[in-house]
Amino acid sequence: MGCRDVHAATVLAFLSGTASVAGLLAAVLLPNWRQMRLYTFNKHERNVTVYTGLWIKCARFDGSRDCVIYDPQWYIAVDQLDLRVLQFALPLSMLTAVSALFLCLIGMCNTAFVSSVPNIKMAKCLVNSAGCHLVAGLLFLLACAICLTPSVWVIFYNNYLNRKYEPVFSFDISVFIAIASAGGLFFTSILLFLWYCACKSLPSPFWQPLYSHAPSMHSYASQPYSARSRLSAIEIDIPVVTHAS
C-alpha cells in the first residue's frame, strides 16, 4: 500500500501512543511509587505499610484497604529527590506525547481526506504527512527518554534508601507501569520512523507534500532539449556542386 494511504503502521502507532499516554496518566495518579513497611513486635498490633505516590501518601494496616493516615498535601512536602523529579518529568513526558499524537492525527487525516493532486498554487501551504509523522516520532522518542530515565532511577534510589536507613523500602507497581509506558512510546516512535523510511523512497522533498511531484504539477517546467533537437531547427541541407573536368 502506498505512503499516501492510511495503513496499519500509522493506525497502530496512534493506538500504541494513546495507550502509552493512558499508562503514564495512571502512573502519575496512583499512590504506588514506593512502599515503606513498618513492622511491630506487639502481637496485639498490626504491621503498617506506607504507600508513597507523587501527590499523596497513604498508610494502611495489613489486610485493610482504608487509609489510616491520608496526606493529600504530600506533593508540597516531598522529601525524596527521585519523586520530586518525577513530579516534573512525567507531566512533561505526557505533554510531549500528546503533542506527538496530535501531529500524528493531523498526518493521518491529511492522507485520508486530502485529494491526491492539489491546486499547484496551494502546494506550498499544504500539510506534509511524512513530515508530521517524522516529527511525531521524534517527540515520542523524547517523551520516552523523559519518562524512562527518572522511572529507572527510582529503583536505584530505593536501594540507596535501604542502605542509608533500614531495608524497609521497596518500589511499587507505578514504576513498572511507567517503564512499560516508556516502552510503548519507544515502540510508537519506531513504527513512525519505519513508515517515514518507506515513504522516503518516493521522490518527495523533506518538507513538501508527498504528492508534490504529481505529473500535472510539473507541466509548467521546461524540459531539457537534446543537442540534436536544438540543431534540428537550424539545420539546412546545402547542395554540393561539383565541377566536371
From TrEMBL:
Q: Which UniProt keywords apply?
A: Cell junction, Membrane, Tight junction, Transmembrane, Transmembrane helix
Q: What is this protein called?
A: CLD12 protein
Q: What is its main location?
A: other
**GO CC terms on record?**
bicellular tight junction; plasma membrane
Q: Tell me how this protein sits in the membrane.
A: Multi-pass membrane protein
- Which species is this record about? Zapornia atra (Henderson crake)
Transmembrane spans: 6-30, 88-114, 134-156, 168-196
Q: Which InterPro entries would you find in this protein's record?
A: Claudin12 (IPR013287), Claudin_CS (IPR017974)
User: What gene does the UniProt entry assign to this protein?
Assistant: Cldn12
Where does this polypeptide localize? Cell junction, Tight junction; Membrane
